[in-house]
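Task: encode each sequence below as structure tokens.

Item 1
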Amino acid sequence: MIKYLLLCQDCENEFESWFSGSEEYEKLQKLKLLNCPKCESLKVVKSLMSPNLLNTKKKENFKNFKKLKDVRKKLSDYKKFIKENFEYVGENFTYRARSIHYDKKKPKKGIYGSASIDDVKELREEGIETDIIPWIEDDKN
């Protein structure tokens, strides 16, 4: 089976059609059995069509997989940096962030922990700088 992109020379309509082979297309063209589905014209010719390569999707999937792997690596590096340089405060993040901000005391280390989206919005509205960082689980394999 082969698929051709066909073009009507009268109404410039492009459409696709399947044939058992290029010989079948030529035969139907000679017998004037190919017509435009839009205007019924018999002035139908083959148009340029990009080839359908099987490996294209595999290469694209590989590129996407590589990008995903690179992003996971960067997130893992950020996570490692944060764990080594910041204090984990768990669910007390919102309380501790406010305490640091309003007490005006500089802690020895920055903090990280868990907070809801609403809590983060409230902190930002109060002028407390916070960031949300995607926290991925470490690969087990």
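Item 2
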Amino acid sequence: MVKTLRAFPGRRIALGVLALLLLLGVAIYVVPVLPFVPRSVADLKFSVIDTVGEPLVCTGWGIPNPDFNPYGEYPRIVSDAPTYAAIIRHELKLYAVRLSWDGSGYDFAMFPGPTPSEALRNEMVGKVDVLGHVHDVHQGSAMGACPICLAASSVISTPSGPIPVSKIAVGMHVWSADADGRHVDAVVVETTSRLAAPGSELIRVVLADGRQITASAPHEIADGRSLGILSVGDEIDGIAVTRLDRVDGSFGFTYDLLPSGATGEYWADGILMRSTLSTTLVAPPAMYLH
């Protein structure tokens, strides 16, 4: 009996502590951003967005910061479409903010958005602590945008043999095509490269004969179709598309080139592609003619 009486106050204290913990848990659930509670990584990213502004979100389909784009990842749209759309919009924003732990808080980096998606812009960088306080916000040195070009792994056909697109420079000779689709020796008159913003996706197209190319969805093949509108079973040069894969393009560089000539076309990974650059300059400068 004495032991029971002595234990009773301890039990009351234990029950009191348990009740306090339960109450705190409910409070954190209902009010997840209490000032004394460390916040989740997702919450910290939204703190950055609330302070710095909307990030650039690249869907890989040529649509910056979409109102709604589920990428076809789900077999059907859930019945509450507005709620589903809001969830997707916010989830895409989380991918657009990069956090890295520095020992006491996080360094963040993001490209400001939302439009125009094709415009290069400097990243915004700064710090956010575990309670969501954002500070030291300033412009970073990296420049990027939504990808519109070829993946760095793409190989360009040239009279000297295949050359990675990342190694192509102005003045080099590449194989282009005339209006009838015949090979012509052309001179590269312009090149471009850009760092893909976080969350960017590229499209990998695989043909039945083994050829495959990876590029941004808006990039067009020679007949004017963009990679993003192709479906399995469609044909390129009479060869069926057997696979279409989405590939993470975040932080990778994409490249493009403009050959001289009437079409601005070139062969990348064995597939005739249109340049995304202007084709108003069709003749190579005299210094490159040899």
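Check on item 2: DSSP finds three helices and 16 strands in the chain. The chain has two domains: 41-144, 150-288.
End of task.
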